[in-house]
Amino acid sequence: MTSIYDQLHQQILDRNARETDPFWSIHASNHDLVAEVEELQSKYEELKRIGMMHPSGKGSADGAAPEQDMANRESAALQNEVRLREQLEKLQEELSSTEQMRDEEKTKVAETTKGLEEARMLNAKKDKEISILEEERDTLQRGMDHLTGKVTDAEARMSLAEQQCVGLKDSIRLMQEENATVAKSKDDLEARFLTEKTKLSQSIAELMDTVDALKKEVSTLHTFRQKHDERTRWLDDARIIQIKKAKDENDDGGTASSTASSTAAAASVAPSAAAKTVQAHTKEATSARSVGFFSSIWS
C-alpha cells in the first residue's frame, strides 16, 4: 500500500513537470533574443567601424546625396539601436523576472526536496517503527499461538483428568463393592473356619480316641503274639519230644508206631472257622496251626 509520503513525492514531481517545461521555452526564447541582440550589436559595431573608416570628406566627391544617405543610415541605426536596447532591457527584465522566479522555484524545490527528504527520513523511521511493531506483533502472535496451544493442551489434559477421575470413582466404587464382597466372604470363611475347626477338633478327638483304642488293640496283639510265640515254642518242644518218643516207639515195634501215627493224625483236625477275630494291621496279623491234642485251643 502506497504511503502518504510517496503520494506527496509523486505530486511534487507532477507539479515540477507541469511548471518546468514553460520555463524551458522562455529560457530558450531569451537565449535566442540575446543571440539576436548580440548579432545586431556586432552588425552595428561593424557599420560604425565602416563609417569611421569612410569619413565625410569622401562626400565632397560624391555630392550631398551620399551624406544624406549616411545620415539616414545613422539615424536608422540609432533608432534600431534604441529599439534593440529597449527590447534588450525588456528581455533582461523578463530574464531577471524569470531568473527570480526560477530562484524562487529552486528555493521552493529545495524546500520541497528538504521536506521530501525529511518526509523520507520520517517515512523510513516510521517504516522501521512499523517493522519493529510488526515483529513485536509477530512475536506476540507466536506467543498467543503458543499460549493457545498450551490452553488447548491444558483443556485436553483437564478433560482426560476428568475422564480418569470418573474412571477412578467407578474403580473406587467397584473396589468398595469388591471389598464388601471380600469382607462378606471373609466373614463367611471365618464362620466356616470356626465350624470346620470345631468339626476338626471333634474329628481329632475322635481320631485320638481311635488311636488310643488302636494302641490298646496293638498292645493286646503284642501280648497275644508273645503268648503265641511262647505257645509255639512250647508246642515245638512238645512236638520234638513226641517225635523222639515216636522214634523210640518205632524202634521198639512197627505196630506201635503206626498206631501212634494214626492216633496223632486223627487228633490234629483243622478248624472249620475262626473261633475269635481280632482287628489289627497286616504286619501285626499272626496265624497258628496246632497239631495233636492242642487243636482244641485254636478251634
TrEMBL record:
Residues 74-217 form a coiled coil. Residues 255-275 have a biased composition (Low complexity). This is Autophagy-related protein 16 domain-containing protein. Keywords: Coiled coil. Residues 246-286 are annotated as: Disordered.
